[in-house]
Task: structure prediction
Amino acid sequence: MAKILIVDDEPNIRLLYTAVLTEEGHEVVEVEDGRHALDALAREPFDLVILDIRLKAESGLDLLQEIVARYPQIPVILCSAYVSFQDDYTSWLAHSYCVKSSDPRALIEEVERVLARRSSSGAREGGP
Amino acid sequence: MARAGDSYCWLIADDPAVCPYLGPHEAHLLADVRRRNREKCLGCEELRRDLADLRRTGGPLFDALVAILDEALNWCRPILRTLQVKDELLDILRHLSHSLQLALDPDEILYKGLVAFTAGSSLGFNRGLALLVEEGRVRGYFALGPRDGEEAARIWREVAERGATLADLLQYSPESFAREREKFRPWLERFRFALSDSPFREAFSLPIPHAPEAGRVLEITAEMPIPEALREFYRDATFWIVPLLSHDERPMGALLLDNFLTGRPISTEDRLAMELFAMEIAVALERGLAYAELREKVEMLEDAYQRIREHQQTIVRLREEAVVAEMMLQLTHTIKNPVVAIGGLARHLHKKLDEHSPHRRFAAAIAQEASRLEETVQDFVKFAATRYATERHPVNVNEILELLVQEKREAMRHGPPIAWHVDLAPVPLILADERQLYHGLENIVNNAIEAMSDGGDLFIESRPSEGTILILVRDTGPGLTEEAARNLFKPFFTTKPTGSGLGLYTSKQIVESLGGELQVSCQLGHGCEVTIRLPIPETPAEGESARAEPRAKENTHGEDLDRGR
Result:
């Protein structure tokens, strides 16, 4: 059980991820842009951020830099519709990648993996 | 027939019956008795007999007269013979000259040249051999004539039986050329000499003779030092070398002539004739060789033009493809998000619905259709990625340079001597398409190598400098003129006969596509230097530059990168 922040400008993708991850027993907060994301991160502690690389008015990568700089302890899974986003060196800042799919299993596995790695590294407690 | 009536035949005019030696076109000699005496009676047996009679009856005066006449005759004979020879030589020269007028093929020129030297009785050498100068070496090229006495007898008999005229003999065909050449092939292949080898050194430096009768001909006798292959070929027969020189006295080849069967020596007249023949052949040969070179150049240009066309088409295609690729990515992105949402939510719904709900089937159907659509989009993206997009990965410029240097050094092993000075300081990684960057750098290194066709020093350096990766490629070739340097980056500009003119242009495009810049500075006589600056990617935070180093890729999410592909 972890607290996860979802950042995506597509409301239905947020709806999907929230449904899937809540189902898995996680607590989910969803926001549509960078400003709301930083607000949320400032307001409460998160165990994980799932970030879309392509946000409407801004680059997901700019936000990624910002999050990594401010909250280096929070892992980020970077999501995109296609794989080539990994070619952008800024994306290497992310801890993990996920290609969007209607099959949620890949995302669930990725979340579990990142959280497990994080708790085993002992940097911080896995969640509430 | 000495006496005709009361007179002698050599005194009677206008009687066709008096002299049996008159030809069909010599009727004028019937009336012109004086001239007939000069041209026909001198040496005639009838006259001799009449003179003998007169001597018996005429006393010492006639004795003296006969002696004077004999002397005059002896004096005239060689002059007549010389005139005859010169007449024939002129005839051959006229035929040769005429025949070579339109000849452009060096084979044809040398064939006809040797025919002229060996035909007839004037020069009539037994055998002729043609050597050509190629890339600073003298090489056996063609030979004409018999290999031995038996063959000579057969050939000369055939020529005589056919009644072949000089014009017939000068008829050229590639088949007869090939046949003669084949006969001597084993010898011709052995004839490989340096220009400085004796006797060619001497033959090619024969001065224009001061005495007009000397001729530019070198006589080689048995005791003179000559290469072994020539000694075996000529045994101990004397032979003569006539150099074939261009208009500016450059050695183009040589003709070697001999009388290995008849052993006939050559006269001063022969030498002059040989020089004259050789000049005629040399003029034609120089023209023929220049024509061949010109034709080769034209073919090279046509080839280069063809490749330029192809490059042009490639550029247009690449440009179109880049636009298409961008459109496809946009399109897939806008399609994929809704499809993922539709499919994902339908799956979720399917899971949540009661097992007996009639709507469960509908949710499953929606999820299934969405999956199909998703797969199609995914395939489309993959296709677009392999077909159109360049793939950028973190690359180490030094690794590319090292690979390039290794490849080029290997390729240049047998080329001109080039000293490689490679100095690569550690540089950060950049994002680039490895093959594209290799190609861009290769063009530049190739240019440098090609600029030093006589060898030289090639400097290749890389180092971080002012927030960029600095790459230098410097050669010690001849450099470029100001005008050529100005044109360097215009597409299709080239100083090389085989270049497409796209090399540097392409390199510049590639460097600029990476946000970098490429500059060239040239100094005539001191070579060229290409400077490339590639931007080092801005590091996300101060002190985070380590992420651009290779281990950044090997950290926790390295495996995810692999999986994602």
Notes: Chain A touches chain B through 34 residues (CB under 8 Å).
